[in-house]
Amino acid sequence: MSQQASLSWLAGHEFRLGWRDWVSLMTAGGRTRARIAFVALVIVGIFMHVFAYWTVATHADANLASGTAALVGITGTVVLSWSLLLSQAMESVTRAFYSRSDLDLILTSPASARKVFAVRMARIALAAVTIAVFLAAPFINVLAALGGGRWLASYGVVVAMGASATAAALALTIALFRIIGAKRTRLVAQIVAAVIGAAFVIGLQIVAIFSAGNLSRFSALQSEWMLRQAPDTTSAVWWPARAVLGDYVALAAVVIFALAVLALAIFVFSRRFGEHAIAAAGVSTTTVRQRRRTAAFRRRSPGGTLRHKEWTLLRRDPWLASQTLMQILYLLPPALLLWVTFRTGHDASVVLIPVIVMAAGQLAGGLAWLTISGEDAPDLVSTAPIASNRILLAKIEAVIGMIALVFAPIVAFLAFDALFATVVCGLGVLSAAAAATIIQLCFRVQARRSHFRRRQTSSRFATFAEAFSSIAWAATSGLAAAGLWQAAGPAVVALGILAMVWTISPSRN
Amino acid sequence: MTSSNRPIALALRGVSKSFDRPAVDALDLTIYGGEFYALVGPNGAGKTTTLRMVVGLLKPDTGSIRVGGVDALSDPVAAKQITAWLSDEPMIYDKLTPYEYLEFVAGLWRIDPAVAQARARELIGWLGLEPHANERCEGFSRGMRQKVALAGALVHDPKLIILDEPLTGLDAGTARQVKDVLRARVREGGTVIMTTHILEVAERMADRIGIIAGGRLIAEGTLDELREKTGETGTGLEDTFLALVAEQAAA
């Protein structure tokens, strides 16, 4: 047994909490669901391996002699994945700063706060590495099975990516604290994290649009221009890619460098972490005055009152708005493609419509959760003299209103390209948004708006149903815009998902 | 005015509600207009469940509930129009100011905007919220949040105000302000029903006190009437309450 308050003792405590968080995430807090969660994990694992086989099987023969094209492709994938890991790690670091949880206990105990925070940072790194390994494993396993054991070296690269991403996240978040202060960091760090996660994907898509006229990231990575700009194959830039391909010297260098950077980051920042956490805790006491001083009360119907409240709350909460509207970032490349093809006279609407419809479904799901489940004064609304179905209707209207506000300009712009496609796109957006709202309605819970990030863990079924429903409506719209009768297939699937959701809906039962 | 010729503000007849076990058991309760009624009882006695059924947040398994003569189960909207509910945990919107919150409540109750605004000003003044009336509620202390929630409960001028532990966690000054506002409502003819664990508050403020235990009303009346039931005079509500609850537990 380790000595109390020692590093190993604290690590044991942190990792026990981490393990319980993970189990709770998988089982939604129900012990009896552990077996179901295990079966679901196995099924997801099999599905991921099939998907990996479909996407990377043809690349299993790549090796160190494959030249610059292979190195560019692998490096691009590594950078893309690293940016996503960095985004995730920044979210975790920000959460650690702003979550009160056991902070009072830690900072008032005689245990060394530096040790506690060092262990906490290591836990964040371990979580990042675990997620990375979990997501990369199917691809690495398929490559190793088809192309040889040398591909297993990729696991080392994945560990290095997780460690270095956490180190970078710590440095970035603490830099934000120092530059803009505790008050603004919470919002800015979340936005920076989301932008970092999206920026590389969007950047590659934009390059692909201009170089190949499509949205494929790989078109950009394999373009003539990109290959011409690439440094010599002996450059250190390619070490991670060389390590992936089985160069063990490069692997050792990459892993040692990443772990050293992480250790340095923990050593440097653990001292300041407590001070920043205390600064973050003081943020909530900040007062915000509204410019509107006791303006006259306006006459609104109860439905109008509820809609106005929903829109005001969303508008005034930049963090929530950024969380929900960040998905619109992914609409930038399709919008750019639309603009480029509109100018060149090519019809890109068939490619764009599924992206727009998918985004509408996902955005509507988030907004529907906020308006329907995320009610901060449920007793007040429930005891108001309004029929409960009128309350729900007003909340649905609030969601559809916001979707219309975001997507109407995009759909209208599409009308310049093809009128039929515009109608199909409009219907697709409405269907996907309505379906996502119905799913949230069927799985509504009582929660605070600030629990928005936890919505996906409260009902995994609702999350998957929402995602698959959006995908099905996107496919239906894309095929319908192309004039194909096969559009009926995904439409039936989409309706089937709704029927299934309705059947097992906890709120109906 | 005697009980028999006063209007009935709330009548519960044979109301029962069970979760894993019975929470409220065939409860009969009558509260008159213009009365301050305190419902006290040990933890888990069924106080909050009873009140949540009255305001429509829970449906009773059996029984009837009439609010101001309106059947609250068959016409909940009409019953809610004349009722206000305030729970122990103030539920308000962090991103709205107190004025905006009151405008929202007035909109839900369809109160004329001019009337609602005048009432909102008055309530904000009474409760000492004026300096913060245009600040978002996110930085407010618990006491200030409770005051905003109370103002929300009163802005639509309800005939029946139902409060569940409204003084929990409030400092002495804030608690005094809340009590003063509630007393003023009763003087103006409103009816207040309040649960509390602070027996001193019930003793000082309530016209009648109901003691609930095991989901049943075990005693009811003025403090003197309750004392008579225990056969002890000159004792406080605390002794009377403990004696009656112990008697019920032994039965």
Describe this structure in words.
In chain A, 76% of the residues lie in helices and 0% in strands. Chain A has helices at 7-27, 34-56, 68-98, 103-108, 113-147, 153-212, 217-221, 224-229, 239-244, 248-281, 302-316, 318-325, 332-344, 349-373, 378-382, 388-414, 419-442, 455-458, 460-481, 488-504. Chain A is globular, with a radius of gyration of 25 Å. Chain B is built from nine helices and ten strands. Chain B is globular. The interface between A and B is large, with 38 and 43 residues.
Topology summary:
The complex is a heterodimer of chains A (509) and B (251).
Chain A: H1 7-27, H2 34-56, H3 68-98, H4 103-108, H5 113-147, H6 153-212, H7 217-221, H8 224-229, H9 239-244, H10 248-281, H11 302-316, H12 318-325, H13 332-344, H14 349-373, H15 378-382, H16 388-414, H17 419-442, H18 455-458, H19 460-481, H20 488-504
Helix pairs in contact in A: 1-5, 2-5, 3-5, 3-6, 5-6, 5-10, 6-10, 6-12, 6-13, 11-16, 13-14, 14-16, 14-17, 14-19, 16-17, 17-19, 17-20, 19-20
Chain B: E1 8-18, E2 22-32, E3 36-40, H1 47-54, E4 62-67, E5 70-71, H2 76-81, E6 83-86, H3 98-108, H4 113-126, H5 142-154, E7 160-164, H6 172-187, E8 191-195, H7 199-205, E9 208-213, E10 216-221, H8 223-230, H9 237-250
Helix pairs in contact in B: 3-4, 3-5, 8-9
Query: How far apart, in Å, are the first and last alpha carbons of chain B?
Result: 35 Å
Number of helices, counting only DSSP H or I runs of 4 residues or more of chain A: 20
Average pLDDT over all residues of chain B: 88
Helix content of chain A: over 70%
Indicate the proportion of strand residues of chain A: under 5%
Q: Output the radius of gyration of chain B.
A: 18 Å
- State the helical fraction of chain B: 25-40%
Overall shape of chain B: it is globular
Helix/strand-derived category of chain B reads: alpha/beta
Q: Topology as H/E string of chain B?
A: EEEHEEHEHHHEHEHEEHH
Strand order of the largest sheet of chain B: 6-7-8-3-9-10
Identify low-pLDDT runs of chain A: none
- Secondary-structure element order of chain A, N to C: HHHHHHHHHHHHHHHHHHHH
